[in-house]
Design brief:
Elements (H helix, E strand, L loop, with lengths): L4 E3 L8 E2 L6 E4 L6 H9 L3 E4 L1 H20 L24 H12 L3 E4 L2 H15 L8 H12 L3 E2 L2 E3 L8 H8 L7 E4 L2 E4 H7 L11 H6 L3 H31 L9 H5 L4 H13 L4 H4 L9 H4 L1 H23 L7 E3 L4 E3 L7 H28 L21 H17 L21 H31 L8 H11 L11 H13 L1 E3 L5
Parallel strand pairs: 1-12, 3-4
Antiparallel strand pairs: 1-2, 5-7, 6-8, 8-9, 10-11
Helix pairs in contact: 1-9, 3-6, 4-5, 4-9, 9-11, 9-14, 9-15, 9-17, 11-14, 14-15, 15-16, 15-17, 16-17, 17-19
Amino acid sequence: MKNSCVLRFDYGFLHQNLIKMPNLHYISTQQLTIEDLQEIIFQNKTIALSEEAKDKITSCRSYLDKKMSVEDQPIYGINTGFGSLCNVKISSDNLSKLQENLVKSHACGTGDEVPQEIVKIMLFLKIQSLSYGHSGVQLQTVERLVDFYNNDILPVIYTQGSLGASGDLAPLAHLSLPLLGEGEVYFEGKKVASKVILEKFNWSPIVLQSKEGLALLNGTQFMSAYGCFMLIKSFKLSYFADLIAAISLEGFDGRIEPFNELIHFVRPHKGQLATAQRIKSFLEDSEIIAQEKQHVQDPYSFRCVPQVHGASKDAIDYVKKVFKTEINSVTDNPNIFEASDLIISGGNFHGQPLAIALDFLAIALSELGSISERRTYQLISGTRNLPAFLVNNPGLNSGFMIPQYTAASIASQNKQLATPASIDSIVSSNGQEDHVSMGANAATKCFKIVENLQRILAIELMNASQAIEFRKPLKSSDFIEMFLMSFRQSVPLVTEDRILHYDIQNAVQFLDSFMIEEGVE
């Protein structure tokens, strides 16, 4: 992603140029936005702990050490066992071993590996959460995580194993193993044993102190990292859904009236208003949209773009607010409140807010794919003076017949994947953890929907760009003509049958090559 270009969306002109930003970000208590995170991660910024963060971490650890030296009362996870073993008291001589055992025993993830871009976000968010001074970790532990981040030492983590309740225990255990010289990491494109990397950098394994293993493993950073990554992608895909719908409207010789602001002022949902405005701006000065129409109405997949796309925008906006709160939060347990002289065991690790939001995002993105596939279907239907399947000599050529099958298959899979995970729960830890969020499953399901949506939109763009060729010599807007000129460099016009798999792949890569500068709708 380092070489991705920026697509600055200003409703009028397409700019592709690299962002030049300061290359250092200080971890502090200052509120982070999703846009901040996007800039830090995808502009490959180096991070460092601010003096404020260092002071908070050090002060909290010092408080905990003093507390443990004068008190013998059981404090969950600090001098007790974990989960249903919370009533088992652990001697002071074994507190470090307790934390090490916790990390090792919980590293039981399986399934596919988590994408490295998401692992990097997990590292960042874990560092951020530990830096608020309520977790009791050693400064050197957090600094080692910073070293991993800055040197692109990315732990091997697996997608399956978290219930999304006691935090993302299994994924975060794998994130933490390299601190001990255990597990595997990716470094310079290769998977290697963590101990090899520690030797390379002349680092000694971290000796975990009381509470540290629990602070590392409790937390929502797996769910949060997936959610933030998908939000960044969702901003872009929502934009492209609008742009590609506008091109499809041109190819279908559709009407502009459903995008008149007067309609939307009397039903003023924010996303609906924004979508209508955006579509109109895309089509400004288009000869195709301005020509006299022979039909009174368009099908819903065209006429109701503001209402459908707009509802998804509003859902994305809600999810964005949830994740902004989460990435600025402390989500391990117990929490240490030095000023109040309290160590409180609670449930900030429970992923229910994220699980529901991720399910909502999955539904919203699935619907963008559903209506996109319907526009693709309309374009190949042989109506509105378009040839059947958008190709000359239909019959001899099948044209765009089967890409619609592909889009339909993917759209249907998205509907299946959009079944909520957050309504499910399975009792764990001998009944101590009797309600869980399943937010990790919500995250990985939604991730698949994001990938699928990009493919569906790529197929629609192929069809829309083909359809608009049959409107010549009339032209669309300068904006759309310029965009299609760029697209044609990746996917040429189809004049006779060829292997369209490669065109779909190229169309997906074309959309993937853009990044947006702002994550706002």
